[in-house]
Amino acid sequence: MNLALLCLFLSFLQACAGAPPPGAETTPSELTSLEILVQSDSRGEVYPCKCPGNPAGGLSRRSGLHKHLLAQYKNALVLEGGDFSSELPSSEEALLVSQLMVEAMELMPYHAVAIGSRELFLGDSYLEQLANSLPVVSANLMGEKSPIPELLWVHDRVLVTSILDPLIYYEWEGALTAERSHILIEDPSVALGRLQDKTLQAQFTVVLAQMSLDRILELAPSHPEVDVWVQAHEPEKSENPGRVGDQNALVLEPGPRSREIMGVFLTQGAEDDWDVRTRFWDLKRSMHLDQRVESLLETFKQAHPDIDLEP
Q1: How far apart are alpha carbons 243 and 227 in whole angstroms?
Q2: Is residue 8 part of a domain?
Q3: Is 266 helix (H, G, I), strand (E, B) or coil?
Q4: How far is CA 265 from CA 77, 184, 230, 274, 283, in A?
Q5: In this structure, is residue 18 part of a structural domain?
């Protein structure tokens, strides 16, 4: 064997010796930082709201800003907290606009999407569309036709799930007559407890919580395995995340009507402490439009000229 072949053979043996055997499990490395981009509560706001003093929002701006931010924060966890479906008084129009929202959201790079009460209000067929189109997740919403994943793993070390407060749905006047034959909303605490073995395997567990802030503060101490709570039902805006429970879990409030994108940046410090920074990007100041979404909206307007998409 000549010298070149001998060196090649020895290099091959060294590589094989250092590689894990086929099928062996490998443990993902611990994260030293985590970036989160999150918003919630857009309520079918397709075009920017011209509300006095707060003209913002809109699907095209949202998608364009997402693309712009991900060029800078390439590993960011992109989350939607739910209640993105339309609140138009006509259920037929609301369903059409909400389906348009879903088509546009398919063009955006979401890692996880929560289901809120507004999504439930539109019935089983719409939920089936969501389950087939977006990375929806719910720990306590049980379905049979299109089962919704209880949790999603992102970046190997981050687990994301969502929970919905049953009272938000059942206090709706149409809850008893809505088409929901295969839907069961489990008690949030029971659902999170059932997932505890899996959440304990994660370095970070993030819960998109479709419930009031008071309900989160009541629930969180019993679930120390949760590291980040996102208050996604009619959220207020808070630039200083709250802390809850003995584990000092973060409580994020991304603000109402998806008119801003909230960024949360966690960096590991000394003694396993995590430094936390937040930032909000206001859509009314964004010049980043997504032409794919613009085209989608124009096609919809031509097909449904009687539906007013302007908020």
Answers
A1: 10
A2: no
A3: strand
A4: 10, 35, 14, 10, 20
A5: no
Digit-coded pLDDT (tens) for 197-217: 999 899 999 999 999 999 999
**CATH code, domain with 130:** 3.60.21.10
List the one residue out of 287, 277, 228, 237 whose CA is nearest residue 257: 237
What per-residue confidence (pLDDT) applies to 190? 96
The region of weakest confidence among 30-39, 164-173, 261-270 is 164-173
Tokens of 38: 């999150």
Q: Tell me, what amino acid is at 231? A: Q
Work out how many domains the chain is built from and give that number: 1
How does pLDDT run across 6-26, given as a tens digit for each residue? Answer: 444 444 434 444 444 444 444
What is the pTM assigned to this prediction? 0.87
Spatial separation of the C-alpha atoms in residues 52 and 81, rounded to whole Å: 25
Whether 2 is in a domain gets the answer: no
Cα angle at 66 between 237 and 149, to 5 degrees? Answer: 80
Residue 145, domain extent: 34-303
Q: How many angstroms separate the Cα of 233 from the Cα of each of 43, 102, 185, 256?
A: 11, 19, 16, 9
Is 127 part of any domain? yes
How many angstroms separate the CA atoms of 191 and 219, rounded?
A: 12
Q: Which residues make Cβ contacts (< 8 Å) with residue 200, sequence separation at least 6?
A: 225
